[in-house]
Design brief:
The structure holds two protein chains of two kinds. Helices cover 19% and strands 44% of the residues of chain A. Chain A is of the alpha+beta class. Chain A has one domain: OB fold (Dihydrolipoamide Acetyltransferase, E2P) (Beta Barrel), CATH 2.40.50.180. In chain A, the strands form two sheets. Chain A has a six-stranded mixed sheet, with helices on one face. In chain A, strands 3-6-7-5-4 form a five-stranded mixed sheet. The longest helix of chain A is centred in the first third of the chain and has 12 residues. Chain A is globular and about 40 Å long. Chain B is of the alpha+beta class. Helices cover 46% and strands 20% of the residues of chain B. In chain B, helix 4 crosses helix 6. The chains are: A alpha+beta, B alpha+beta. Chains A and B meet through strand 4, strand 5 and strand 7 of A and strand 17 and strand 18 of B.
Chain lengths: 158, 586
């Protein structure tokens, strides 16, 4: 919890090309931090009938109902039970607020433009278009996501 | 500051007085045969009050104008001035001048309404007039001319709408609503002091009392919240109230005779919805008068009464508010729309679209049956804007038209911020809320009371009626606690005048819930009217009966293909017309 608070604090102070990184399985993903509104711990999610598979359901964000997207499903990973370490990364995009479910948040990384490489040509087109680039920090490879596209895919591919 | 407050209050009241006078004038005009002296008195009182208050506040021009108007009204009260159509026109024009004076006074802008002097002169002439006989007629005709010009300008600038602006700045609340708020806060404070006392002497034997007190405070707090929400609700009357004048002026300008009938004015809508629905409704009314209702001769030639009827209706159905604008005019012209669509390239010449497809084109941007453009509509604002405005509110709009019989626009608005009386129910591990208003009854079916009709439909027989049954778990694709109807509960709900049965696991309590929109951050979900937040902070979905029926139809192998309830004996015969439209889902 303290860690969440600390990260949330960093988000507030963030500027420039900063990314919030989070874990999904063994992989490390990054989101443009300016799109991130807050990070919540995993709480009760109400499933929606006949929703796209990636839409896990809706949750209550201080009186607003927001959809929660399961990124594992989006990326074709095997769904797992989320533990109490799981987090909901709340992003705000073109006036809508959406929660992204992840295994846990890792860090806030500042990356120079030169550190970011374009996404390699993957075989799977659906996932590839969600990736805005790859970045290397130390030994770790971080997959940078294009949040807008992510939501197009998750919300409307019914 | 207190001066500001006084002025603000004055402007609100004055706007009401002017509006009320206008309404009374319109009624006076409608009852031209035998004028009701009560109406004249009402207008007189309004103008008199306005005069007194504005003089007190130093709004001299307003006071002077009201004074001149009052003089005319005095003569009318005495019967010295006959009530002619020309006179009513003049008085309505005077009401407009009052509005503009108010507007200018509120903005603190200088300058006078351009026709102030001429209107003053007219009123003075009327008030002293040796007029009662021939002279009265004379001034009447002159004034009618002046009046028409004024109305023309009023429609052109489109901005004479001071009461709207006032409403936007403040919320006026009926005293009962405020009283109930005050009472509840009182209760809350008492409960809180109870808790404070209990906590001070907390012993093991007090735990139960504390629990009760906390529960009580919780109830009060939530009710308080609901009442505060209710303060935001306004009757649609506030919008409807401005339309009689609009309809009258538009009809006059086009030489048409139109009667406006409004109903359901007490239907309450959230204030923000009220503000944003005014323009779309105005547009639909204009549209009906411009394009729908024919001139009197044409109507008579078509075998209809010369006077056209415009019906404005508000009502609540399930989780929605409906606003209906219906005219008995010529209806949409399929051929003309098709021609226009071809011109715009929306249709190819050899296409054979259905009626629905054709009428759907009226919502396209830039679509207007331009050959009937009049001075009031056809200013580049099309129905697409109306639809966009309605959709911004999370609503939808549909049109139903019949050639020669008229057109009905149905605006469906969600109860975005409305409080709903709901019945909670459970299916498996899920809790849902069903609008109480939709429920007819609920029962646990006996074994054998539910029967399968053909392969994919089920009915529950209630008092000899076969009611089509929808298994909620199946349309929502979730795991139920039981598949056996006789272990569950069947809730009979009304849908479009017919009964539909919903099979659920069990019923919970009834509660008032605050409806939250799913569309705000996500999208519309068929079968779900919205969501609400439960006392544990979790989210429960609010069911939408029409959506559930659509889902059950659209689902291959879903429940009732036949969504009509009918006597058991005839069930077998309904095989022939099972719903095969395949388009139940939109």
């Amino acid at each position: 919890m303290e860690r969440l608070g600390a990260l949330s604090g960093q988000i507030g102070a963030a500027a420039g090309a900063q990314y919030l990184t989070f874990r999904l399985g063994d992989e490390e993903y990054g989101l443009d931090i300016l799109k991130v509104q807050e990070i919540r711990s995993y709480a009760a999610i109400t499933p929606l009938p006949n929703a796209p598979p990636a839409v896990k359901g809706v949750m209550n964000l201080r009186g607003q109902i927001i959809p929660v997207v399961d990124l594992r499903v989006t990326f074709g990973m095997r769904p797992t039970e989320y533990t109490r370490f799981a987090v909901v990364i709340v992003v705000s995009i073109v006036g809508k607020i959406v929660g992204l479910l992840a295994d846990g948040v890792s860090d806030v990384l500042t990356m120079a433009r030169t550190d970011v490489q374009p996404a390699p040509d993957f075989g799977a087109p659906v996932e590839a278009r969600l990736i805005s680039g790859m970045a290397k920090t130390g030994e770790k490879l971080v997959i940078l996501l294009d949040v807008e596209r992510l939501l197009d895919g998750a919300d409307h591919d019914a | 500051m207190s001066q500001d407050a006084t002025l603000r209050m004055f402007f609100e009241e004055a706007t009401d007085l002017v509006g009320d006078s206008e309404a009374a004038l319109l009624r006076l005009e409608a009852a031209s045969g035998e004028p009701d002296p009560g109406l004249v008195n009402r207008i007189f009182r309004n103008v008199h009050t306005l005069k007194g208050t504005s003089a007190m506040l130093g709004l001299d021009r307003l006071a002077a104008f009201a004074h001149s108007l009052e003089d005319v009204l005095v003569r009318m009260r005495k019967g010295a001035q006959a009530i002619t159509p020309g006179l009513v026109d003049t008085l309505l024009a005077s009401v407009d001048v009052l509005r503009r004076l108010l507007e200018r006074a509120r903005e603190g802008s200088g300058g006078e309404p351009e026709n102030l002097e001429s209107m003053l002169a007219t009123l003075r002439a009327l008030s002293v007039g040796p007029a009662a006989r021939g002279g009265g007629d004379g001034s009447g005709t002159i004034l009618a001319g002046g009046g028409a010009g004024l109305f023309g300008r009023a429609s052109d600038d489109g901005g004479h709408d001071p009461d709207h602006a006032v409403e936007a700045a403040t919320v006026r609340v009926p005293i009962e609503k405020v009283d109930s708020l005050v009472n509840l806060v009182g209760e809350l404070v008492i409960t809180q002091s109870m808790i404070a006392r209990l906590v001070a002497h907390l012993g093991p034997d007090r735990a139960r009392e504390l629990e009760e007190a906390v529960a009580q405070m919780d109830r009060h707090a939530r009710e308080l919240q609901e009442r505060v929400m209710a303060v935001r609700m306004l009757p649609i009357r506030t919008v409807f109230g401005r339309f009689p004048r609009l309809v009258r002026d538009l009809a006059h300008a086009q030489g048409k005779q139109v009667v406006l009938e409004a109903s359901g004015e007490d239907t309450e809508l959230d204030k923000s919805v009220i503000e944003q629905i005014t323009d779309p409704l105005t547009h639909l009314l204009r549209n009906a008068i411009d394009h729908g209702i024919e001139p009197p001769e044409a109507r008579r030639a078509a075998g209809k009464p010369g006077v056209g009827h415009l019906r404005l209706r508000a009502y609540q159905e399930g989780g929605n508010i409906h606003l209906e604008v219906a005219d008995d005019g010529r209806g949409l012209d399929r051929d003309r729309i098709a021609r226009k669509a071809e011109e715009l390239g929306l249709l190819t010449a050899d296409a054979r679209p259905s009626d629905d497809e054709i009428f759907g084109l009226i919502w396209e941007p830039g679509f207007s049956t331009a050959d009937t453009v009049s001075q009031v509509s056809g200013r580049g604002v099309g129905l697409d804007v109306v639809r966009r405005n309605v959709e911004t509110l999370g609503g939808s709009i549909t049109v139903h038209t019949e050639r020669g019989r008229g057109t009905t626009f149905d605006v469906r608005l969600p109860l975005t911020l409305v409080i709903l009386d709901g019945q909670s129910l459970r299916v498996g591990s899920h809790t849902y809320i069903l609008p109480l208003a939709a429920i007819v009854e609920s029962l646990r079916p006996r074994p054998g009371q539910v029967s399968r009709v053909f392969t994919d439909a089920e009915v529950v027989v209630v008092r000899g009626e076969a009611v089509p049954m929808i298994r909620l778990h199946r349309v929502f694709d979730i795991a139920p606690a039981t598949e056996d109807p006789s272990q569950g509960i069947v809730v009979i709900v009304e849908h479009g005048g017919r009964d539909v049965a919903l099979l659920v696991d069990e019923l919970g309590g009834q509660q008032q819930v605050v409806i939250k929109s799913l569309e705000a951050n996500f999208q519309k979900v068929t079968g779900v009217a919205g969501a609400t937040i439960l006392s544990d902070g979790g989210v429960a979905l609010i069911l939408d009966v029409p959506g559930l029926v659509a889902l059950s139809r659209a689902r291959p192998g879903g429940e009732p293909r036949i969504v009509t309830s009918q006597p058991v004996v005839s069930v077998a015969s309904s095989a022939g017309h099972s719903q095969s439209d395949g388009g139940g889902r939109r």
